[in-house]
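I hope you will forgive my troubling you with a question about protein structure. I set the record out below, with my sincere thanks for your time.
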Amino acid sequence: MNNVLLVSIASFFDSTGEIPFVFKRAGCKVDVFCDSTSWLLSNKFYDNWIETSSEHETFKDNLLKLVKEKPDYYKWIVLLEDVTVKLMNTAITTDEELFKKILPINKIENREILSSKTGLSNICLKYGIPTPRFINYIEGMDVDYIKKELQFPILLKEDFSFSGLGIQFCEDQSELQSCLDNVKIKTNLVLQEFIKGDDIGVEALFRDGKLITYNCAAILTYMYNKFSFTTRRMYYQSREIETYLEKLAECVGMNSFASIQYVYHPERKIYYLIEVDARTNSWIPYSRFTGHDFSDGIKRIMNGDLTPDPKLPDNYEKRVEVAIFDRDLRYCMKSKDFKRALMWMFNYKGSWKFIPLYDLKYFGRVFKKQVRDLTGIKG
């Protein structure tokens, strides 16, 4: 049996709720390691719940104890969000084998990329991976120096942030100080040139530094602004992006899932790497609609087959629109896009297939969350 352990400490993240479904479809036995409030328990597809505390030290110690007591039991341990990745990256300092067993990369020398904006920028510089020009901000840094090194507009990025939080847009020098004043922790702050281009969201699966499968997408709808999470995407395949992902995998030693963002600069014809979060996201389960199903990739990995998806012809142009229904419905209400809300109501273009009715336990919690978000009524 291919035993996997799905690990989550951030119980407020709903993105973990459908991940057991992805692994179960790949024929895995799924154990979940989380506390009693976690979204990991809001589904019918896990086989065993290993209860732990959400207190960081206890969580870390319990996970390390479990893995050391059963070193060969789990074929794959998957950390499901940035908070968990950061916690375990800090916990495992020198044990390289344990690092490879638990963390989502297999080159410990590149660990700074994990849940760190500064680390990502440094890794890109190290391996010649295209990324926007950046500097690491030091408290009291002279503005003239910043202007000399970077061209405005720029992005101010807190080192550890997610879902668009901790990122501020500075149009010009006059806005920079007010943006800095909004940051409580200025350690490892990144100032990065803002690239005007096409945003591309990517979900990818890697193993032992090899790209197994991926999906990339044009972003159709953001919840709030272009730094927030997305509600609709148009998925496709790209040989160019595939080449970028293969280099990233080999250089860094990518060894699990990753949520990645590029920006394409049409004049320079360059894909700039903006974000690498080495964990799953809410779009992973929807790969079953794109023709490049992550469950198939997991199945190959479990069978010892690390061959990637077959190469598509250069003229392959199939595109598939995908929406996360609860996110998109919230967007419709927030933006008063009632036309799109009616599309959901009347199953326009078969949109109901994106509603997770395959699992009424998961759907029930999503529905309750939707009601609370739209009405403000708790319970």
User: Anything to note?
Assistant: The radius of gyration is 21 Å.
